[in-house]
Amino acid sequence: MLQLSITGFYASLLALLYLGLTINIIRLRLSLQIGIGSGGNKVLAAAIRIHGNFAEYVPLALILLACYELNNGDATILHAIGALLIISRVFHAIGLSKSIGASLQRQIAMLSTFVVLIVLAVVNIRLFIVA
């Protein structure tokens, strides 16, 4: 029987974070009375980008994580990469919330996200070649 319990755990945590980011946008839209777009509001624009960036990177990372788990990847690596992905997404939200420009948290977040994608791509390619 195929199981994705580790990927499922991290996907669930990330889903909760995604919902939190979504609720933040809704809260801002209601308080600012802006129905679509950012209306030129920098705080709302940043919240929209945090949410968008999450939606751009997390699905691919979860697909790669699931592939690795389905191919009997090492549980320690799965947990390390899953935890790093969560930390990177939290750091990204914090960094972009503090400044729309460069910030240490944002740089760490993107570097960490790239590490997650690269490591998962490499281990999945390696499993394919070795199999």
Order of helices and strands: HHHH
Radius of gyration, CA atoms, in whole angstroms: 17 Å
For the biggest sheet, the summary is:
none
**Shape, please?**
elongated
CATH class: Mainly Alpha
**How much helix, percentage-wise, in residues?**
over 70%
Can you count the helices?
4
Return the CATH architecture.
Up-down Bundle
Tally of domains: 1
Distance between the termini: 20 Å
Low-confidence stretches: none
Mean pLDDT metric: 93
Outline of this structure?
With 131 residues, this protein is mainly α. The chain has helices at residues 5-32, 42-70, 75-98, 104-130.
SSE map:
Blueprint (H helix, E strand, L loop, with lengths): L4 H28 L9 H29 L4 H24 L5 H27 L1
Structure description:
There is one protein chain. This protein has one domain: Up-down Bundle (Four Helix Bundle (Hemerythrin (Met), subunit A)). It has helices spanning 5-32, 42-70, 75-98, 104-130. With 131 residues, the chain is mostly helical. Helix content is 82%, strand content 0%. It is built from four helices and no strands. The chain starts with a helix and ends with a helix. It comes from Colwellia chukchiensis.
Which tags fit this structure?
membrane, Four Helix Bundle (Hemerythrin (Met), subunit A), elongated, 131 residues, single chain, MAPEG-like_dom_sf, Membr-assoc_MAPEG, mainly alpha, 4 helices
